[in-house]
Automatic annotation (TrEMBL):
InterPro entries the record matches: OPRT, PRTase-like, PRTase_dom, Pur/Pyrimidine_PRTase
Organism, scientific name: candidate division WOR-3 bacterium
CDD domains listed in its UniProt record: PRTases_typeI
The protein's required cofactors: Mg(2+)
Quaternary organization: Homodimer.
Protein name: Orotate phosphoribosyltransferase
UniProt record, GO biological process: 'de novo' UMP biosynthetic process; purine ribonucleoside salvage
Lineage top rank: taxon: Bacteria
Ligand binding (orotate): 114, 142
Stated family: Belongs to the purine/pyrimidine phosphoribosyltransferase family. PyrE subfamily.
Pathway: Pyrimidine metabolism; UMP biosynthesis via de novo pathway; UMP from orotate: step 1/2
Location of the Phosphoribosyltransferase domain: 35-150
Entry EC number(s): 2.4.2.10
A GO molecular-function annotation: orotate phosphoribosyltransferase activity
Length: 184
């Protein structure tokens, strides 16, 4: 998979974007274009699964909403179970009596990695129920090489500039700021 394919499929958007993290960027990754396209999702997940060669997992764990599809596809290819972290009363956790034990090997997954905030929240949630995280996987890594305490695997590493709002050259040029995505 290459960047041109993602651009053709309207996954990669160019402009002036307000990210969920509060940062501004000249590039936005519309994950739902991936989730709407089984062939694209399967290919990106397959790229990561090849990198996970030799590792085995009992569960793939991802966040609700978009992470459900990502988790399921990873679990399907890895031949294990999928489970989902949900937010209730501002607390992230397993709320459906998923029978994960401390011995179960967990792969945490997410769609696009920028600051690591979502993954760190998932790590904290899994530690809260004494889960055994083995690795982390994302479809697209657009981060600045964040260091997690677990190995990180990705389908694509893409450079995309981010700016704090007060130092954003796009704001200085008076480019229209767009807030895509679902989290508000």
């Amino acid at each position: 998979m290459d960047l041109k394919t993602l651009e053709k499929e309207k996954v990669v958007l160019k402009g002036h974007f307000l990210l969920t993290s509060g940062l501004h960027s000249d590039t936005y990754f519309e994950k739902f274009r991936i989730l709407e396209n089984p062939k694209l999702l399967t290919e990106l997940v397959s790229t990561v699964v090849k990198k996970l060669k030799g590792k085995s997992f009992d569960y793939v764990l991802g966040p609700v909403v978009g992470g459900i599809v990502v988790s399921y596809e990873f679990a399907r290819q890895l031949k294990c179970k999928a489970a989902y972290l949900e937010k209730r009363d501002d607390k992230l956790g397993l709320f459906r009596e998923t029978p994960i034990t401390p011995n179960d090997r967990i792969l945490l997954v997410d769609d696009v990695l920028t600051t690591g905030k979502s993954i760190n929240q998932m790590i904290d949630a899994v530690k809260g129920f004494k889960g055994n995280i083995v690795s982390i996987a994302v479809l697209i890594d657009r981060s600045d090489n964040i260091g997690f305490e677990y190995p990180l695997f990705y389908g694509m590493k893409v450079e995309a500039k981010t700016y704090v709002p007060e130092n954003c050259p796009l704001c200085e040029k008076k480019e229209i700021l767009v807030r895509p995505g679902g989290k508000r």
